[in-house]
Amino acid sequence: MAQTVEGISVVEVHPLVRAIFVLQTFEVPILLIVMFEVTYLIHKRRSVNFCGMYFDEGRRLNNTQAMSCMLRNSIRSLATVLLVMGLMVNFDFITSDVPIDELAGRAGWWTLFEEEGTFQQKLHLLLSLLPIAVLVAVSFYLSTMMWRYGTSSSMIVHSSICNP
Q: What is the CA radius of gyration of the chain?
């Protein structure tokens, strides 16, 4: 339950809480964009193929400029969608009468599948969990790309258990 002061929720009153809600929604989109850009620039600098883009001496080849533009703008669009979704969840633009709404930001996937109710009643919780799921999936893919770069394309490969 949200704390109330004279019948009004603290979230509705205190500007610091609202500022924290806004800052919290920027975490996932910023991480997504930074991780993609760093991975892209590392592959570009070393002229290594990345997501269907081919580089020569640190420059995109002519036939991959459209792919690069599409891929970079799709990541930015995805980050914008996740930002809007986070704002909708944090400022309760989607409401329902079910107490599962109060769990958004405090519960995980298990709660989503464990609680009884319709999809409409669980929508708020699902939208609060979706940005993190997207971030985990994209991070896993980009980490795999970086690991492949490190094991096969970099100049110095340090032997370890993970590098065959």
A: 21
Q: For 91-163, where are the alpha helices, taking DSSP H only?
A: 109-114, 119-148
Query: 106, 99 in Cβ contact below 8 A?
Result: no
- Which residue, chain included where needed, has tokens 């001496």? 57
- Tell me the sheet residues that pair with 55: 60
Tell me how far apart the alpha carbons of residues 90 and 67 are, in angstroms, rounded to a whole number: 34
* Selection from 133, 132, 126, 82 nearest residue 104 by Cα: 126
DSSP-based three-state secondary structure for 87: helix
Cα distances (Å, whole numbers) of residue 95 to 39, 90, 109, 120, 133: 38, 11, 19, 10, 22
pLDDT tens-place string over residues 110-149: 777 776 767 766 777 788 888 989 999 999 998 988 887 7
Mean pLDDT of 52-71: 72
Q: Tell me, what's the pLDDT at 48?
A: 75
